[in-house]
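Table 4 source record.
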Amino acid sequence: KCEEILREALEVSKTAPVLIEARIDKDINVLPMVPAGKSITEPILEIEIDD
């Protein structure tokens, strides 16, 4: 289903802005991310994960 939505969004984006809303589990890190209370100019680009 994600691939279908992305294909449709890419097609629509040729003539109009597109926003894709995706629900991500709170325990999954998606980068880059903007920390709470920080500016968009201060993104987190990588995370060190302790094994």
